[in-house]
Amino acid sequence: MYKKKIIVIHGVNLNLLGIREKEIYGGFTYDEINNLIKNYADEYNFDLRIFQSNYEGDIVEEIHAAYKEGIDYIVMNPGAFTHYSIAIRDAIASVKIPTIEVHISNVHKREEFREKSVIAPVCEGQITGFGYYSYIMALNYIKIKEID
Ligand code: DQA
Predict the structure, then answer these.
(1) Is the CB of 76 within 6 Å of ligand 1?
(2) Would the CB of 80 count as within 6 Å of ligand 1?
(3) Phi/psi of residue 29, nearest 5 degrees
(4) Which residue, among 110, 102, 64, 65, has the nearest Cα to 82 in the 3D structure?
(5) Model pTM?
(6) How many domains does the chain have?
(7) Which DSSP symbol is given to 12?
(8) Secondary structure tally for the chain: helices H, strands E
(9) Which CATH number covers residue 110?
(10) Of 8, 100, 107, 108, which is best to mutate to test ligand 1, by the most ligand atoms within 8 angstroms of its C-beta?
(11) Beta strands in the chain (DSSP E)
(12) How far apart are CA 138 and CA 117, in angstroms?
């Protein structure tokens, strides 16, 4: 059976999960969160890989690579790039791969500058504020959508 191909893209500073502002992002480390994501992906029978970069251009390149690879869905937490990266937004709009924007914290409950996502208008939707479970909810969405 064909397995849906998914890439999870973590943006800037997300490699510091478990170290950075635990009161906001929780105590799970970057590796622990990735393991949880992979466990769910196996359970849902997804072909999933994970990419992280602190460089905007690398993320743009990864989105282009996803297009060439025939990736079915992107699950992306762009980190602070969310709020200003027109380059990442344009890359998503260019490849037209359905993308789900996720955030660990609730970006609407924090500083005003986090309210604005330049990425959201080119995404299927935004999942924000559920801790690492935001990523799992995105996988859940894909699973449910694929059954329909
Ligand atoms: C974040 C929210 C962003 O505002 C912030 O810059 C991050 C993490 C989140 O997952 O809650 O780096 O994307």
Answers:
(1) no
(2) yes
(3) -80, 170
(4) 102
(5) 0.97
(6) 1
(7) T
(8) 5, 5
(9) 3.40.50.9100
(10) 107
(11) 5-10, 47-52, 73-77, 99-103, 125-128
(12) 17
Tell me how far apart the 2 most distant CA atoms of the chain are, in Å. Answer: 46
Catalytic residue list: 25, 103
**In Å, how far from its chain's centre is CA 5?**
14
Atom of ligand 1 nearest to the CA of 83: 4
Q: Which residues contact 15 (CB under 8 A, 6 or more apart)?
A: 30, 52, 54
pLDDT digits (tens, 9 = 90+) for 53-87: 999 999 999 999 999 999 999 999 999 999 999 99
Q: Which domain holds residue 78?
A: 5-147
Residues 106-142 have pLDDT tens digits of: 999 999 999 999 999 999 999 999 999 999 999 999 9
